[in-house]
Amino acid sequence: MKPRTAVSVLSLLLGVLLCYSPARAQQNPMGLALPATAQVTDTFSPLPFGAAQLQGGMLGTRFEASARHRLLEVDENDLLDCFERRNVPHQDWQGEHVGKYLHAAAQTWAITGDPQLRAKMDRIVARLLKTQEADGYLGTYKPEHRWTSWDVWVHKYDLLGLLTYYQATSNKSALAACRRIGDLLCKTFGTGPGQRDINKSGEHMGMAPDSVLEAVVLLYRATREPRYLAFAGYIVRNYDAPGGPAILASLEKYRSVRRVANGKAYEMTSNFNGLLELYRVTGDRRLLNDMLIGWDDIVRNRLYLTGSASSGEVFQDDFHLPNGERANICETCVTVTWEQMNLQLLRLTGEARFAEQAERAILNHLLGAQKPTGDDWAYYTPLEGHKPYDSATTCCHSSGPRGVALLPSFAIMTSNDGGLVVNFYNTGEATVLLPKAGRVKITQQTDYPLNGKVLLTLTPDKSGAKFPLRLRIPSFLTGLDYRINGAPQPLDYKPGAPNYLLIDRAWKRGDTVTLDLQLATRLVRGDHENAGRAALVRGPLVLALDTALNPDLPNIRRAELASEDLVGLKFTYAPERAKAGEWVFQTAGRIGGTALTIPLYLTPYATAGQDGKSRFEVWIPLPGKAPDAGRSGSVLANGIASASRQGNVEGEINDDDPDTFRVTFNGQRAEEDWYAVTLEKPAMIRRVVFIHGKRFHDGGWFDTSEGKPRIQVQTEKGGAWKTVGLLDTYPAATDVDPKGLRDGQRFEMTFPSIQVFGVRIVGKPACGDNSAQCFSSCAELQAFER
Question: If you average pLDDT over residues 157-171, what whole number do you get?
């Protein structure tokens, strides 16, 4: 980020206190936690808010995009209406968004000092606190519906957001509101007379309401109030109540997150973060041990190559990792709580494996879900298909900026032996007051992860200050070289497990450390559901084949790698192919079933499909493994597809893959839509199959109120279209109601054999809940000889 702009004198003084307080004056989080509220001393501690700046690079660019184009633009009324008008129906979990917003915005403001963001936060907090009732209630439910569904969950995010705002601004009204929430929770839930069972006050076998644990422990740390810690103990004991999630007992018995409660990933990992916070406070080793069981199971059995997890929002069976859009994989909320879990474990243990998993998730799936412009997010982000960005207010759109806001405080940390730790390589700087060495400024200059060259400059206030410096060494390097003030240093480096390079010395002002992290390009062979395919990974970056960079590729699904080893692939950097500032790499490929070698252009998963329209794939078939054209037998497989209108999703409609689809959405109305496939040479057909694409709230189907969709053919090349029949089995859908039409539903029509040069489906598009426009969708258009 750029240096701070004009801020108030009070804000500047606060920033100085936060940045330059002794790193071990209290247990982190600095500015929130009171002394003597933790039994476990963190091995590594995040920097105080505002102590670190990220400048450009992958992390800094995305941080600034989130600050400018998301956090400043979020509709305040959309966040607060559900509190200010509780009698008006809202989503059950609508109240979570304001807390998530404050959690991200407060951390971001503490770094940028943006007065507009501060003013926006202050307005939001003032309006929110006005809605708190006398008993402390700060939810969105009518009195008769309190403590049902997602009510406790909403209070969790109230607490997390307001506590972070208090941490960044020292606003005592925010802390007082949190106390009132905490007191109400303690009064409402428990095992005493008239108290409720918290497991039964929310969803997913109690995992949703139980996840208030993290916020309650942080409230204890901010107040040193014993009843909040006692309430945290009740939550954990109550896991094992009848019907409860039995989180710890299940992990110990089955050693699988799949067997915990109903497997719901977001709510489960939210509890994991609360349990790690409670371990820090109590020192109960069982909590840490069980979280390590869960972490190990996720990494071994349930983690995508891009560093996130879940399909259909749950942890699936071992190695069941579907890639497509319809599998609803890697919910952004899960990505963020998984990132947080790794950062918690990194703080507690100082082990590099947790930093490496956090980097993997951040550089690939977190930034892959964020539109590079920062304004939109994807709820789910597939490994093949399209990035479904939108600007709606959903759980994931509110969670994503939280994951980005965490980055500066963890890029550089302090260690419990009085030193500095560099976890994430990105141009930037930090100023920290170390307990023995005094104030030290550290700057980074690097293009990592494009390459592994890193220049670190250390400037202690007092020359000769002695302190340890730890530099994270990833597991994926082929070699490592480092120099101090330009002089090579002896190093017995062996590639393997992630680790830290420890340099413990007296530092003079302006001392430099130069790292050459020799990044490898790796060919990762797929297994299980990805057998016969491979992915290319450059350093920490998972790469993807993107149709936007390969306009000459007729069908991305038929592309395959030209070799099974990197030598034959001749992997190179190809910046001349960049279209929107992305990094582009070139390798050798083929069209399946041919011997002709063609170039394939790949980009990091974080920027693949960034236009929201192009199709991309992470897993690419190995030589001879690309699917055959027309494996279904459709004579249209090698034809040229077209549609009546260009929409915002342009998937293939003749690739034998019903997970890819095309829409005609362009924000306009139309009386008729069609999808066609034409052929260079004629073919005999007697059967046509149409597979519907996807329904949306504002259309995506055919309105049949004036007739069912028509199947038409061309009997002469470029000739007139002739109707051969209707799709009679298509539902009696209207302009606003799809009448039960399912995503991917298949329809078929037969007729006497005929020779054709083309086939198309024609129908009237529907508008759903937005009459200003209408559109339709098509997943597959197929035709068969028999």
Answer: 97
Q: Which residues of 144-182 are buried (b: 16+ CB within 10 A; e: fewer)?
A: eeebebbbbbbbbbbbbbbbbbbbbbebeebbebbebbb
pLDDT over 90 (residue 557)? no
Identify which of 469, 451, 600 has the alpha carbon closest to the alpha carbon of residue 58. 451
For the beta carbon of residue 65, count every other beta carbon within 10 angstroms.
18
Residue 398, classed as helix, strand or coil, is helix
pLDDT at site 23: 37
The hierarchical CATH code for the domain 640-784 is: 2.60.120.260
3-state secondary structure of 5: coil
For residues 120 and 113, give the distance between their C-alpha atoms in angstroms, rounded to a whole number: 12
Token pair, residue 200, equals 């039964």
**Residues in a beta bridge with 250:** none
> How confident is the model at residue 572, as a pLDDT?
95
Reported residue count of the chain is 786
Residue 522 one-letter amino acid: R
- pTM exceeds 0.90 for this model: no
For 227-247, give one letter per residue: b (16+ CB within 10 A) or e: ebbebbebbbebbeeeebbbb
Model confidence pLDDT, tens digit, residues 4-20: 333 332 232 233 333 33
Strand order in the sheet with 420-422: 44-46, 412-415, 420-422, 465-473, 499-507
Nearest CA-CA partner of 583 in 4, 61, 53: 61
- In this prediction, residue 637 carries a pLDDT of 83
Taking the CA atoms of the chain, what radius of gyration do you get in angstroms? 28
CB 254 within 8 A of CB 268: no
- Written as one letter, the residue type at 724 is V
Type of residue found at 381: T
Asked if residue 339 lies in contact with residue 406, where contact means CB atoms within 8 angstroms, the answer is yes
Q: Which whole-number Å values give the CA distances from 242 to 199, 218, 430, 723, in the listed order?
A: 9, 27, 50, 63
**CA angle 739-743-745, nearest 5°?**
80
Domain boundaries, the chain: 9-413, 437-446+453-514, 521-621, 640-784
Convert 608-617 to b/e letters by CB count within 10 Å (16 or more is b).
bbbbebbbbb
| 27-56 per-position pLDDT tens digit | 567 889 999 999 999 999 999 988 999 999
CATH class, domain 9-413, is: mainly alpha
Q: What CA–CA distances, in Å, run from 779 to 621, 637, 695, 734? A: 22, 13, 11, 20
Q: Is the peptide bond before 143 cis (omega within 30 degrees of 0)?
A: no
